[in-house]
């Protein structure tokens, strides 16, 4: 047997712990990668930075005006000149503040859109098996809450951090110019504050990730309950689901409360350190003025600069906590973006040659990664000739649907190979392979658009005439035209506005319009009444004449029309032939048919008895 697909790097499971240093380095790298999102908009970022520099520099001017006013006297033309100058200065500051705020807000919203696009694009590229161990609600929560955290950082907090950093650096320089000795006293509080920032910042990052995890879990419960609302109400479980959600909300609240404790501790420590420095400066500076070592105006300016430095330091402390939150959110988002699909196109794909859709299975064995000890398919060898309709029959769990999922490469066989028109599926570009195959499943999925949009989903360039022809071939055209809005009728989420049989026929029309080489019908007529099924069977007789088809079905009326019937049991082919040939043998197929006929007779007798 031929070895299956090689192992590839995959995303670690949610909540998995990486080595501490490795996790820290990876988190830092992912946070820095936000710059990749902003790089295309460097012009706007530069404009916002320029406005920030002008605004920050102007804010450092007014303490000098206060010093001049105190030392030179607050009266007469001097005061008028100082007041007028400050008004002009503050008008300039207001203008550049608006510019900075607008540009950074634009960048924040742009970052949100780009991150959501990247995350969703990656999700769409990942194989279906990736989603089996992850909650849909959790993933949508990442797109909502985590991206919102990133938007806050890029749109507001980066700007505030830069402004406060500029004020802090500029203020310290001017403090040194005013009085180096007093500046040294003020800077005594910085080292312990930095140690506190690092220690508490680590706790904030941990608590922040916990909050995001709890919110994602609560979101998952909402989506799960709403998606199965009829089941919830049908079994009168509304109160239980509400209690489950309330439990999740309380867990999120508790995580947020613990986060608030650490963030409050962070802010209070920084604020105390800053204002303690002001009190210390006031005490030391007051004695210096008393001794005549400095003027009252210099002390006033020094106090204003010290206040600005203290406020900036306290704000930076708070922003450091926000940055830790952003690091956690960014880490979660880039976990998705960095996930490597196990199923992907080869680097140098082989073009699919012209052909009629010949399908070959060569020693196909498959085990699910989550159940490596269970062999679902074992050593399957099968050839489906171009234009042939083959029905797969067997008990539930025999491996029929697994085989149907292997063909469009929703997963790859553990061993063996599958060929379409002579080419190994793993050598084909995914887009070309999946364009050549169309599937109608037992539970067809429709999207919340119009009937026309759903029929054309597999052929986006289809004309209205082609859409209507596909509907006629699927015997649903008359029904669609009887609706008030015809083909523009909205089907609702997952097609809830249509019956099961109607959804099935829309899905069949969608598959037929795609004009695939290989058509897979996985219990595709299971939800049709006898009249609808008869109509569909007539359409299938005509439309499958020159197309390779694989039919997975239990109903005798569907199976007996196939050119060949393949009986599968426990992942192996037991027998194959026409309906008549298999009925002439004392095998599994005959027993399955007899059991179905017996069940149908019992149902008919029961209905007659109740009539």
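Q: What amino acid sequence fits the structure above?
A:
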């Amino acid at each position: 047997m031929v070895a299956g697909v090689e192992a590839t790097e995959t995303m670690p499971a949610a909540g998995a712990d990486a080595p501490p240093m490795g996790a820290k380095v990876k988190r830092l790298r992912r946070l820095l990668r936000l710059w990749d999102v902003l790089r295309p908009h460097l012009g706007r970022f530069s404009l916002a930075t320029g406005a920030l520099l002008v605004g920050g520099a102007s804010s450092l001017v007014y303490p000098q005006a206060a010093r001049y006013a105190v030392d030179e006297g607050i009266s007469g033309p001097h005061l008028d000149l100082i007041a007028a100058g400050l008004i002009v200065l503050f008008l300039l500051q207001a203008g550049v503040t608006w510019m900075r705020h607008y540009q950074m807000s634009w960048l924040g919203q742009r970052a949100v859109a780009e991150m959501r696009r990247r995350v969703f694009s990656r999700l769409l590229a990942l194989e279906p098996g990736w989603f089996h161990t992850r909650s849909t609600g959790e993933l949508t929560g990442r797109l909502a809450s985590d991206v919102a955290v990133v938007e806050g950082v890029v749109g507001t907090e980066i700007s505030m951090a830069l402004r406060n950093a500029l004020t802090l650096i500029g203020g310290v320089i001017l403090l040194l110019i005013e009085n180096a000795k007093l500046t040294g006293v003020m800077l005594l509080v910085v080292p312990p504050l930095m140690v506190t920032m690092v220690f508490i910042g680590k706790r904030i990052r941990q608590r922040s990730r916990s909050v995001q995890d709890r919110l994602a879990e609560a979101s998952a419960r909402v989506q799960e309950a709403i998606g199965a609302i009829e089941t919830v109400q049908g079994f009168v479980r509304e109160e239980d689901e509400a209690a489950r959600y309330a439990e999740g909300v309380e867990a999120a609240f508790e995580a947020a409360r613990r986060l608030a404790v650490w963030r409050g501790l962070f802010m209070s420590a920084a604020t105390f350190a800053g204002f303690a420095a002001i009190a210390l400066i006031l005490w030391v500076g007051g004695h210096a003025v008393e001794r005549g070592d400095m003027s009252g105006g210099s002390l006033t300016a020094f106090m204003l600069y010290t206040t600005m430095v203290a406020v900036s330091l306290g704000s930076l402390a708070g922003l450091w906590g926000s940055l830790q939150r952003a690091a956690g959110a960014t880490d979660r988002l880039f976990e998705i973006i960095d996930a490597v699909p196990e199923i992907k196109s080869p680097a140098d794909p082989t073009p699919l040659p012209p052909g009629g859709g010949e399908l070959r299975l060569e020693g196909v064995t498959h085990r699910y990664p989550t159940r490596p000890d269970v062999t679902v398919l074992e050593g399957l060898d099968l050839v489906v000739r171009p234009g042939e309709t083959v029905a797969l029959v067997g008990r539930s769990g025999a491996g029929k649907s697994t085989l149907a999922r292997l063909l469009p490469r929703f997963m790859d066989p553990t061993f063996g190979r599958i060929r379409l028109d002579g080419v190994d599926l793993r050598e084909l570009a995914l887009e070309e392979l999946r364009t050549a195959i169309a599937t109608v499943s037992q539970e067809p999925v429709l999207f919340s658009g119009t009937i026309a949009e759903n029929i054309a989903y597999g052929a986006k360039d289809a004309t209205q005439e082609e859409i209507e022809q596909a509907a006629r071939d699927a015997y649903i055209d008359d029904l669609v035209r009887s609706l008030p809005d015809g083909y523009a009728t909205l089907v609702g989420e997952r097609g809830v506005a249509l019956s099961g049989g109607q959804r099935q026929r829309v899905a069949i029309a969608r598959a037929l319009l795609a004009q695939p080489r290989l058509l897979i019908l996985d219990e595709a007529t299971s939800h049709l009444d006898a009249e609808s099924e008869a109509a569909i069977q007539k359409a299938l007789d005509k439309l499958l004449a020159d197309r390779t088809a694989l039919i997975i079905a239990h109903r005798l009326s569907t199976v007996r029309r196939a050119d060949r019937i393949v009986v599968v049991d426990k992942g192996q082919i037991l027998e194959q032939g026409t309906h008549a040939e298999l009925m002439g043998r004392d095998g599994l197929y005959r027993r399955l048919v007899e059991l179905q006929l017996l069940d149908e007779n019992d149902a008919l007798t029961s209905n007659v008895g109740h009539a």
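Q: And what stands out in the fold?
A: DSSP finds 21 helices and ten strands in the chain.
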